[in-house]
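User: For my dataset I need records formatted as: sequence, then structure tokens, nothing else. Please produce one.
Assistant:
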Amino acid sequence: MKNNRISFLLILPAIVISCAFFLLPVVQLITVSLVDGGAASYLQILTRPIYLKSLISTVGLSVLVTLVSLAIATISGLFLTRYEFRGKQLLVAMLSFPLAFPGVVIGFFVIMLAGRQGLFAQLSLQLTGERWMFAYTMAGLFLGYLYFSIPRVVLTVMGTAEKLDLNLIEAGRSLGANRWQIFKDVTLPALTPGLISSGSICFATSMGAFGTAFTLATNINVLPMTIYTEFTLNANFAMAAALSLILGLVTWICLALAKRHSNASVAMGG
């Protein structure tokens, strides 16, 4: 009896935090989304182009950012793990810098590169007489999302690659396998759980990123900005709540599927 009481006291803070910061806000969002016209807000998300396009654009952008981040980070992470060179530790330390920057700061970095007075615009003006600007387009937002997504995946890949059994690679080489076959049959399966986990986090972060979108998405209709507009400018609280729940649901499904497939990959590999 005493042990049960102690266990309850130990888990009580987690219960309180879960209720205060997850359950109660979700219940409140559901309530607000159903205040005016019941489920009409959810129906509008699927029928009104402005909301449907916002949802599709956000999911598409997040998927693209995730795939490109995984591709770049896998190559970079394996290289940093396997090879030693001068300045490697400094380079690895610098990879964590983007994780410390707020989204607004990352947005300004993109503007400094691809804005009207940015580096690309100045170079193109000298070379072609025209300014190349894409900071306030989907390409600029994509670049901003990549900036804070790639380091997360690289660090995860490095951590997973360090645990890779080199004997398996040597065995593959002794059997006559080429580099691609070793990567496909040995390295990639070992990295898969980490790639799935980091990819899901990358997707979830891109779905809900607000600071970068707020800075760059002046002419782009992505879900965080649509929610902000509905809540602050249009005072359409029911729609803002419904969109928030849809965003959360899509993200939660992605994380749940990633966890399931990651566990399955670990079980198959173990």
